[in-house]
Amino acid sequence: MHNSLLAVLFASLFALVSARAQVPTTDKQADDAAAVHRSAIVIDTHCDVTQWMLDKNYDLATPDPKIDVNLPKAEAGNLGAEFFSIWVDPKKYPGHYAQRAFDLIDSVYKQAEKHPDRMVMAFTADDIVRARAGSQKKLAALMGLEGGHAIENDIHLLRGFYRLGVRYMTLTWSNTNEWADSSGDMTKADVKHHNGLTPFGIEVVHEMNRLGMMVDISHVSDKTFYDTIEVTRAPVIASHSSARALCNNARDMTDDMLRAVGRNGGVVNVNFFSAFLDEKYRVAFAAQKTVREAAVTAAEKAYSASHNGAPAPWTVDEKVNYEWGSKIPRPSLESLIDQIDHIAKVAGVDHVGLGSDFDGVSNLLPQGMDSAADLPKITQALMDRGYSAIDVQNILGGNMLRVMREVERVSRELQTTQR
Fold it and tell me: Of 154, 177, 182, 399, which one has the fewest beta carbons inside 10 Å?
């Protein structure tokens, strides 16, 4: 009898919670969320449209349903600042990592020069604030170097990238480089690993601190992460990572890692890729791996055969991966909100932000999050869950502004003491 009564009580409680969760948003709540979103400086720390700008000569002012981040969609979603990814495919550009990175950087500057009334290059937290001040809000364009292999083991190149405007570097991409291990190949026996950071890797982190370049720990192995937390003198960021407790992917972060970022004062910017958000989607995506990779290889060979042996561009791989990924039902928008909520609860609400991976995982995003124009849905969903206006504004961008200012402060201090 006692167990039956408990069962009835739990069932009633579950029904009540479910009913409350499904109550439609009122007009007043929607108005409040819209006002909060408009007043926020929304910062996205990772977008791959840079490849389109360089290789396809894509103009950010041109409406295009295939593109997640362009000026019309940024303006529709009140996106205030975008970190354009400077990513160099290590397989397609061997021996030319830095040159490819320079070309991508140049493509960002060209867009800012072409559309000075709508976007502006930014290098500091104050630059972002200035870009959004007044009635003519401009998109603040920043850059993040995705993968330490691009500095070609040369500290002088790291300094050069900073001078060109790069404001964070992801220590590794999916490939282990000569000085830091990646989460992407830790199970590969033919890859030489270092058990985290090498002495040169530690030097790189210290030099990034001195320069004022944010240290990005997305993509790195767990050991590289903990080594970085131990040696950094400034807050770190994860530019596009999610929580492993909700989705068991090596690219995601454990709760212990999330807490470590919170203690460090950094920010974990949530990746929108469905296979990093939702466990069911991850399992289905992983089950495709063998056949998907075989399809990519076949497509690359077919391209080379019809182009006098030229290597296939990234668009060939992208097309095949997206075709296969689209066969899996997309998870709901709640999977993204669950991730933000989990990280806020574990690391702290001051240590979570947005790192979409837009245009890197375009049609593999959760339902309803198809481009930068959909960013207001995040604000609405968080406020529906009871987050305050100030907490939402910090998640949208305030937390990143704080970290940028602290990284800038540490840089000034180190440059003064190390003269």
Answer: 154
